[in-house]
Amino acid sequence: MQFIETYHLTGLIIGAATFLIIGLFHPLVIKGEYWFGTRCWWFFLLLGIGGVAGALLAENVILSALSGVTGFSAFWGIGELFEQKKRVEKGWFPANPRRKKQ
Fold it and tell me: Are 98 and 35 in contact (CB under 8 A)?
């Protein structure tokens, strides 16, 4: 941690990791809707609550920030999951032919 503080890399680390976390949630939402439909919204809710709790409990600034980013990205994923369902209905994304209609 001394290296990070000496060279003032905290912001860069948080920025790069935030970019990767948000980038990870995009395919998670698409694959989640494809395989489970909107029924997997509770997974995103639990992940979001865990992320927010982690942000509140972490003493390290970087871990706290990244936990918060993960938590709120998961909360964002809930809304995107239902938007993804609409995109599938419009034909913009493929529907899973093996999954029964909800």
Answer: no
Summarize pLDDT for 18-56 with one digit per residue, the tens: 999 999 999 999 999 999 999 999 999 999 999 999 999
Total domains present in the chain: 1
- In this structure, the dihedral spanned by the alpha carbons of residues 24, 82, 95 and 88, taken in order and rounded to 10 degrees, is -100
Phi, psi of 26 (to 5 degrees): -60, -55
pLDDT, residue 101, reads 63
Whole-structure pTM value: 0.87
- Residue identified by tokens 């997997």 is 40
Residue 72 CB-density burial (10 A; 0-12 exposed, 13-18 middle, 19+ buried): middle
Q: Is residue 74 situated within a structural domain? A: yes
- Of 67, 70, 63, give the one whose Cα is nearest residue 22: 70
